[in-house]
């Protein structure tokens, strides 16, 4: 009975995270590169990564799949190609983060996992932008090749690093809120973050977010 209750709560939290991630897609999409306005940033991957931290890599994949499907049937104009690319992008970011954190449920595990997610997502999306972007844009592949390193690579790197910053910033508050609502059990034997370490995480996350947003603004203004 206790197991069934926990599974029900996990399903409810997973559904809530999917709804939040999808809502963020609807209300926070904006382009970074004026030369490629079809490349838009949204913070959904931070929420998907938090789901992976909470429940493991399978949940991160399910969230990526569900949110990408909802995008496809509602706001996307690129049909199945957009679905595939959105899923691959989210999964490539959140899956390594969840895997590393599952093996090392400490701050270092989260940092290494999110860093790995940033690298993996950037590399995977450069490949898939080369392969699939010409199909839905109906342009010659040579045009996309010329955009891979000056546009697609920095876009995906900035997007993933910003989402990593948000995931670091929001994970512990999300855990505290869910435990207060009795949606998550207390983790036996797990020591809470020391106050100084919590402040370090907060400061580091805010610094990363501020640096990436500043760089995005400079790129949009054509200064960088």
Using DSSP, what is the number of strands? 2
Mean pLDDT across all amino acids:
89
Return residue spans where pLDDT drops below 50 for at least 5 consecutive residues.
none
What is the distance, rounded to the nearest whole angstrom, between the alpha carbons of the first and last residues?
A: 58 Å
Radius of gyration (Å):
18 Å
Description of the structure:
- The protein is globular, with a radius of gyration of 18 Å.
- 31% of the residues are buried.
- 79% of the residues lie in helices and 2% in strands.
- A two-stranded antiparallel sheet has the order 1-2.
- It has one domain: Arp2/3 complex 21 kDa subunit ARPC3 (Orthogonal Bundle).
- The chain contains eight helices and two strands.
- It starts with a helix and ends with a helix.
- A hairpin with an 8-residue loop joins strand 1 and strand 2.
- It is mainly alpha-helical and 224 residues long.
- Helix 2 crosses helix 4 and helix 4 runs antiparallel to helix 5.
Notable characteristics:
224 residues; mainly alpha; Arp2/3 complex 21 kDa subunit ARPC3; 8 helices
Task: Explain briefly what this protein structure is.
Helices cover 79% and strands 2% of the residues.
Layout: helices, strands, pairs:
Elements lengths: L1 H26 L2 E2 L8 E2 L2 H12 L1 H18 L4 H25 L3 H31 L3 H5 L2 H33 L14 H26 L4
Antiparallel strand pairs: 1-2
Helix pairs in contact: 1-2, 1-3, 2-3, 2-4, 2-7, 3-4, 4-5, 5-7, 7-8
């Amino acid at each position: 009975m206790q197991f069934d209750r926990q599974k029900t709560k996990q399903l409810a939290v997973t559904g809530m995270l999917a709804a939040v991630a999808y809502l963020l897609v609807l209300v926070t999409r904006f382009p970074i590169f004026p030369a490629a306005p079809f490349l838009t940033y949204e913070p959904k991957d931070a929420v998907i990564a938090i789901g992976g931290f909470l429940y493991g890599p399978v949940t991160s994949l399910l969230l990526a799949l569900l949110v990408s499907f909802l995008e496809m049937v509602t706001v996307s104009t690129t049909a199945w190609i957009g679905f595939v690319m959105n899923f691959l992008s989210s999964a490539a970011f959140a899956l390594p983060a969840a895997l590393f954190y599952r093996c090392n449920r400490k701050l270092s595990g989260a940092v290494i996992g999110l860093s790995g997610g940033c690298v993996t997502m950037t590399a995977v999306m450069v490949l898939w932008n080369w392969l699939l972007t010409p199909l839905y844009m109906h342009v010659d592949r040579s045009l996309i090749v010329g955009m891979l390193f000056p546009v697609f690579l920095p876009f995906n790197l900035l997007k993933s690093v910003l989402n990593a910053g948000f995931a670091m910033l929001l994970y512990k508050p999300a855990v505290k809120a869910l435990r207060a609502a009795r949606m998550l059990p207390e983790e036996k034997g797990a020591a809470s973050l020391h106050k100084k370490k919590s402040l370090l995480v907060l400061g580091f996350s805010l610094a990363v977010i501020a640096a990436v947003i500043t760089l995005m603004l400079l790129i949009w203004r054509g200064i960088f």
